[in-house]
Amino acid sequence: MKRLMPNRAQVLCGALLLAVTACKNQASDSSALPDLSQHARSYVAVEKTQVRAGPGPQFRVLADIPRDAQLTAVGRDGEWVLIVSKKGNPPGFVPMASVRAADGATRHFARSENKAPAKYQTVADTSLRSGPGLHYPVIAELPKGIRLNVVDQEKGWLRVESKQEGRKPGYVDASYARPMENP
Predict the structure, then answer these.
(1) Is 98 helix (H, G, I), strand (E, B) or coil?
(2) Do 75 and 82 touch, CB atoms closer than 8 A?
């Protein structure tokens, strides 16, 4: 009696069919994907800059951005900000030093007349720094979800103060915090 053995081509086709079917099932579950619009922040270019395909000068230039251009940022990779286009252009990266939080975003940071701190919450793990910039030393690491007392805003950075006596104020990148809806 002759035993039927599948040849390599049949095994390969079967594996490929199984992989395609599995990928189709995973791709149809879009609820598992993050909603980038929830993370979008408005920024303005502070100088003429270039959008690059990746986070660094070694990546190809996708477009030139003029000074004062409105940008929508959805993330950060080191010293680079990931921006998306509302006009259908491909996403890309701009240097963090070439952008600042837009006026629309910064008006939330202004202190009220009674000088009470604004209540914010971190939206991701981030660093508390001694000054408003990445070149300042890290004072502490802050986990996602921690509450912040914001007393001022400077160049896209939130100045935060601790309620605990004797602790020095620090700065958090504004793109890593949001005003609390119910403080």
Answers:
(1) helix
(2) yes
